[in-house]
TonB-dependent receptor
Amino acid sequence: MGQSFTGRLLGVVVRDLRCSVSALSLSVALGSCLLLTVDAAAQTSSPPASATRTPSELPQVDVTAPKPRSSAAARSSETQKRQSTRSNTRRPVAAPAAAVADRQGQGDQRGVATPPNSSGVAASASRLGLTPRETPASVEVVGADTIREQGYHTTVDTVKGATGVTAGDAPNDVAYAMRGFQGNQINVTYNGINIGPTGFTALTMETFNLDRVEFLKGPSSLVSGQGAVGGAINFVTKAPHTGPITQEAFFGFDNRGSIRSGYGSGGSTKIDGLDYRFDISKSREVGFIDDTDTKNLHVSGQLNYRLTDTFKVFAATEFKDYQAKLYEGTPLVTSAYSGAFATSGIVSGNKISDYNLSALNNVTIDSRTLSTNYNVLDGHKTIKESWVRGGFEWAATNDVTVRSQFYNYNASRDWYNNEVIAFNANTNQVDRERFYVHHNQNMVGNNTDVTWNSNILGMDNRLVTGFEVYHLDFARPGAASIAPPDQVSLVDPVRGYYGTLQTQRQTAIIDSFAINLEDRLKITNNFALIGGLRYNPFTLDRTSVDKFGATKSGFPYSASWDPVTGRIGYTWEAVPGLTFYSQYATASDLSVGSLFLLSPTQKLTLTSARSYETGVKNLLWDGRAEWTLSLFDIERSNVYSAQAGQRLNLAGKMKSQGVELSGAVRPTPESKVWANVAYVNARYADYDFTGGTYSGNTPPNIPSLVVNGGASYRFINPGWLPVELGFSVRHVGDRFTTDANVVTMRAYTTADVFAFVDIPKSPVFPTVDNTRVTFRVRNVTDKKYAVWSDPNYPDQIFLGAPRTYEIETSFKF
């Protein structure tokens, strides 16, 4: 989409909003000032700064909304009544808007349980306790029911179902892309807490322990901190509920020998006011590439204790253990060498190897290498993570609520493998090079926010003031010297072992403080102004020593930043269920590399990003249908781009314009149809270098078109067990492997089919309320395709999984 369309449209909307604001009362005029402040801060902060950020959202503990104060006699009578019935009946609990999100993962049964799921509350999109329809941004929630129905086993599977989101496993770890941006420009948070750059910290998790996954599109530093240029993804763990204890379990396997299982339990205990949740899941996935088994263990638990009607405390803990034998990619090979084994439809283009400079010319993927692993035999990746969180929620008055959360996060990550896999056209061999790095990360922090509901000149107003502080200690032992590069054959390689290793050490300490302000002013019952500001000063202290323990040149050093980011917008419910919105937002992130790798010679500046967005959200047909439409224009300045061998080039600016449309409908009680489509025009500007220019080129891994869709029908006949049949389809357009745009990962379309059989309670298993047996076939056409490429290793790509057959049995009791 060109600037003449999206840019002018969004600009007019925002300018009209400014004019409207200036004509209203003093409080509304403050919204206009807020917009100007955000804009000025994005352009004039010196330097535009960023930091890893930990949002202030609590894990949605349910606290009863404060009731009108009653007399002492009435309170005494109420107390005696509660005491007399405590042993038999649990007092019903009303939850504030912000707490509703805990139950949204179970699906909004009044509407459609598929994305965009706009009846839920996405706490990571706003601290104001708003639903996606009430938020002036593109927000999507994938709940537990959708995860279960669509068979999203892992977090990578789940994000691919969202509108316009793609994902892949890069050599270091998981990478996501949306709205033309990828990697560290997409924030990943856990229960609203940001633990650092995605490329360093993102972990593929099983989804059984999750209640939902939340998506906030576009620049969103206000909510999720530095780096959220393209958007943010928040993974929310299952939390306790008040009521009878419910339990669930599942067991599944596939034709490759993968096994998954899980058990969860939660509800109210015999101790009045004490609720719990416990989940454990474990998997062993056998990869479609040789010798790439993955083991994943996730244990999570939380206790909520209500001391009074208005005060509640909670404690939560999690542990994750991830062990994998790595697949680092499949090499691009010259078609002349592969001959009859050259494939079509996976990649195309002509290039010179970035690693060994041999002329690959017309490239292909050799059909003999579709399952070949070129990694060393003792290569591995292991990650262990632990969380401890605790805090309280206090309804201090009828209009003021205080939430506070303390947390401690620890991670140990280890990569010990071969990462370069580059075909050499001069030798017809595959060049390899080793990689080693270890992370020790410890992070402690507190997020506190105060919500104040008030009335200004007859208009309802909600103000949330958040305070965030954390201390992050990061140690990174890396390879100082390793076994020299080697070569193996393209077909049936003798993989060998890692060899000798010497290490050196780097450290980074980050101290951060942030103040967040968010406000919603309802001008009328159906028109609201919503805005916010974030001020986030932070400091970085770095050290680096060589393999002999000697401090390297330029170290230690310290740097500091104090960025200001924010957003302002409006929502207008023109008719019941039909909402128009627009917003202007800013964000910032590190311009070069990562805070954990930044060297003294690199520019200690931050990027600045701004976004215009407008759209429509509609819930209709008595909640049986919903759809959303959004148009956006994003520009990111002061950009550096990764090149082969982890070099960096000044790329100037990145521009992204596009449109997203998603919807779902239940035509009948037995049927469901859902679909989403995203079109984006992402490109570089002012990207010039000696000998050429990449201006106008598309960033790596960014497709112009992503389409998802699916449908299901439930057959219910007397005398027969309920059976549901369904399918889903995914199309991803062409993507480039590097900024040069010389090699294309071709567009692909895959389809899955599934069937459920629901077995109700029976005399055989009287304690089991429901048993579901699921049969699923993934990639039914066995499409061969490329799913991702890491620009740091441009001579290799990652293949998508072939056809897979699965069966799973789940129980609720």
About this structure: Residues 216 and 711 are 25 Å apart (CA to CA).
